[in-house]
Amino acid sequence: MPMMTVISTLDNNGQEVMGPTVLIYHYPSASIVSGSLITVESNHFCVLKSRGAILNVYETGQYPITTGDKPIVGSFVQGFFGGQSPWQYEAIYINRAKLVVRSSGIALSAEMAEMSYDVDYYIHVPTREGALKLIQHMPYSGHALFTNQINDYAGPVVEQAINQLIQVTPLEKVNEKIHDLTDLVRSHLGEFLDGYGIALDTVKVLIRPNDERMRALIALKAFGLSELDAVRYYAAILMAERGVASAPNMAIGQPFAIGAGAVLPVNSSGKVTDGKS
Predict the structure, then answer these.
(1) What is the pTM for the complete model shown?
(2) Considering the domain boundaries, does residue 34 fall inside one?
(3) Which of 24, 106, 211, 275 could lock onto 145 through a cystine, CB 3.0 to 4.6 A?
């Protein structure tokens, strides 16, 4: 009598293979036969398939595989093999814990300025019906589907939602729209993921100018500087970093003169000053 095969998400060293980046795990063995014992952890579902047909969706517990299972999705044909049924089973585990996915990209403001965005969204598969829908509609290769692969499908939805609002918003007012932007992304993304049996939880959106100089200028304006003053101070900072002695003149908007072998600040009348007047 053959030894009973125990099917689980533990590897040969007893370590859990379904970590925080794995949504689907296909048990990588053809040794599953009638009489095998399926073990399902509290944060998993397990979908049992045979010859393309889905036989059952299991929740927490241990379940023996029997040939009397009836398919709930699909169909299969039993051939004639001298009275022996060569049943072949697949055990597919779904992670029902809350997982995080990140989507990043570029959007354009109303002035066509590039804005970088990062969206972190949290997902989980809440029900047996959701697990069934996920297996039916989400393709994957190999023996696992990772969270970053979820974003291959969801990323364009996030991008569309963000551009829908950003493209009609001036650059300086983008951060004022962050709550509206988050709600818009949540609405579009939640509806999309529901088609795969996935529930959307928290959505966090971060958006900023893609150009480093633009970020620096906006930061200077936050101190109450005008656009012209912000540009002058930004140029003065760059000049000071390069050791240019006339950087203070750039900051105060005054001309400079060269004398005594050094660059000296001068006022509008041409007299040398200490840079404060």
Answers:
(1) 0.74
(2) yes
(3) 24
